[in-house]
Amino acid sequence: MEWLIAPLEVSFVQRALWGGLLVSAVCAAAGTWVVVRGMAFLGEAMAHGLLPGVAIASLLGGNLVLGAAFSAGAMAAGVTALGRSPRFAADTAIGLLFAGMLSIGVLIVSRSQSFAVDVTGLLFGDVLAIRARDIAYLAVALGVSLTVAVLGHRAFVALAFDPRTAHTLGLRPRWAQAALLGLLTLAIVASFHVVGTLLVFGLLIAPPAAATYWSHRIPVIMVLAALFGGFATVAGLLASWHAGTAAGATISALAVALFFLSAVAARLRAPVVARMARLRGTVPVPSANGVVLLMVLATALPLAGCGADAEEPAPAEPPPHGYVAGAEETDSPQSRLVVADAEGAIRVIDLITGQISEAGRVPGTVRLAGDDRFGYPVTADTTRVVDGGGWTVDHGDHMHYYRTTIRDIGGVAHGGVTAVNSDKMVTAMVVGSGAAARTLLLDRAALDTGTVTVRGIVDGIAVPYAEHLIAVTGSGSPEVRARDGGVVTPLTEQCLEPRSPVVTRRGVVFGCADGALLIVADGGFAATKIAYPTPVPAAERATEFTHRATSTTLAARAGDRGAWVLDIDARAWRFVETGPVLAVNTAGSGSSLLALTRDGVLHAHDIATGAETARAQVLIEPVSGAVRPVIEIDTNRAYLNDATGRAIHEIDYRDNLRRARTFPLDIAPAHMVETGR
Length: 677
Fold this sequence. Notes:
Strand 20 (508-512) and strand 21 (515-521) form a beta hairpin.
């Protein structure tokens, strides 16, 4: 039963399960009337009509559910208003609003390149991203839906069969129609997170339509529809987990499949039921009792499997794949910014929720280093370790994402750290530079549990890579070493004045006096020199690389002339003449080079031609003194610290450097590093 239980032990799958079950119940209450009254086209139109509101909310950084609710409300009001016109039929009004709202949504999406990735979530949903508060909202939505369904039952029934009779009985058909539209709107908005704007129809229509094959009574149809939807949710989550398919689409597809199975079963059952009725002399009436029992058992089985028998505890199971004690697994990267001011006050910004947390104080902080999880405030004498609370575990063919408590976990009596690189066993902290550089090795497994343990010190600059250490000595000789620092094998190429080591998917890169040294592990270890195209003065060499995590394109300042871009795949340098810049970075091949000048203007340059493609005034004042802002970059956004403005600016670098969000702070963020990627 491990295939059934293991996925449901993961917290974000559990939230998706409960969210899907609640949405199934909400859709059952509204979808039954949609099917009974033949309002399927209206339901489809309103589902697609969510797109403008969702797109605007995403563009402005607002709440997507509120945007969806506003758009659906506008659609419902338009349908009600135009539907009263004697000039044309109601479906004409619905079709016009459908096309108009969808067109507006597409226009908004096309206006911003930033939707290139996000539009998938808008259209097809992201059930695995449901949070605890979303479940609370869905529970409230279910309560409202059931209240409306119960109180309006008589009016809805009369409206479905004869509006004139409803009017004669004093049931106010216009009010009943408005309430029914409100119920439909609530169901569509509630379903948006699970299956998106395009697949809402699957959960809204398919389960009630399938239920009509098993009963003619509306309350029973609603119950069966909720059970069918719940079964589709459970089975869809399990199927998507094991098959690696999109969860929302899988749930919707199974809901539709249940409809066709019900249709086939009803067709096969009809002759048998009719024959039995003739033998008994009775009229064949469909019975839903067996179906109800079957669906309850099928839906409840996985939920029951998550519990334990109170009298006979289940034997202890091994931890599920990817389990990390004390951490919560999530469905997406938990990106964080660790920032510090000149006095050493540390803050951590959760880029998912926008929450800002205090993380202690490290007086005398002169810089911040970072790796995938930790920020390292560096002083002249010490280096602290701050747990950013989010990280990614790469298993090669898939990823696991985790979050935990933000905290200051200790430090070491070694200052002057210039670079930090980690793998699952070792954290290597480079202290100093040039011939006097040495590397402090920390036990990464101990660090993950909150304990700072020094394993040893290696002469030269060392980086953990491919279950070894890659080191370059002060004399410029690269070596492959064991975890304890012992030499395994020397490498042939030289790297004089080594600096700025970084690890990419292609290998380890060291900056050198005459270019860069790339060391890759491919059956063995091989070193390749990537020399500058021409001799470069010391002041214009690449002394500190920046790049997006996992990217194979690196950027570095080139003195006062411009910036260097190193394409590791092409084994080539490219010089971009930008003039004096304070910070540079790039998202990778095919993206722009971002460069910040002292006047506070952020520039985007085409890497191939060097031409400026966009610029934006980001900092409120020119940068003065020794303050040097940082550009951190990931797959969607770039981040820039504004010490004078006491804020962090989030930049959409794919949309003409549009400022997407600003995080105001109570400190002046002189230093910044991104973790959790």
